[in-house]
Amino acid sequence: MSGNTRNCSSYFDARQRDGEIKGLFFLDKTRRDTEGKRRTDLHFLDLERGEISDVLSTTPPDVPLGSTVVTCGNHVYTIGGNILRGGILRSLNHVFRFDFKHAERGWRKVSSMLYPRGLPEALAAQGKIYVFKGSRDCFGEVYDISGDSWVPLCVPSIAEYSGVSRPVLLDSSRSRILVHFSGDRYRSLYAYYYNDKSWVCLDPKFPYWSLT
Fold it and tell me: Which residues cross the membrane (predicted)?
């Protein structure tokens, strides 16, 4: 699951293999550092004990606003984001990783995305991170965690005239990602089957898609 750092606090869950959620990792942006700048602290909420951990880590200043946070295994990733330069808001392709098993190492920069993305949609499945939206030059891309490398995501034909709606949802029981496309003429629901790297139209006339 992913959360976006434009919010005051972003939440992403820690699931067991049976799908049960045992806890929530969250980013707290309510505090400021010694210079008065807003900081982003990583915490863990144990749902069984009802306890919130001390600060596990503070994201580095290089992590911009509008980045997206994704968990996969023992790692947390911050992906993309926006930065204001010369009065112009520019997107970034930076990716940072935090390892819970080696918290003393802090956040480390890994391979950057192929294209800059601001406010991207991202989720993790089977050792890979799938990223959508946030770029006019690339529909989507996939990060191979073990190989620390990015490749473009295959593009369905509908993407030529319809954009991706928020949110993009993981349906792990069927090994697929649900993506809603919305345009002036077409509103359709598609599924990307990541094992086969193929797209299937589930409903060509699926009008409504909401974050709530």
Answer: none
Split into its structural domains, the chain has a count of 2
pLDDT digits (tens, 9 = 90+) for 111-122: 999 999 999 999
Same domain, 172 and 149: no
Contact between residue 59 and residue 105 where contact means Cβ atoms under 8 Å apart: no
SS3 of residue 14 by DSSP: strand
**Global pTM value:** 0.83
User: Mean pLDDT for the chain?
Assistant: 86
CA–CA distance, 20 with 71 (Å, rounded to integer): 15
Q: How far apart are CA 19 and CA 62, in angstroms?
A: 33
- Sort residue 24 into left (φ over 0), alpha (ψ -120 to 50) or beta: beta
Of the three residues 105, 127, 153, the one that is the final residue of a domain is 153
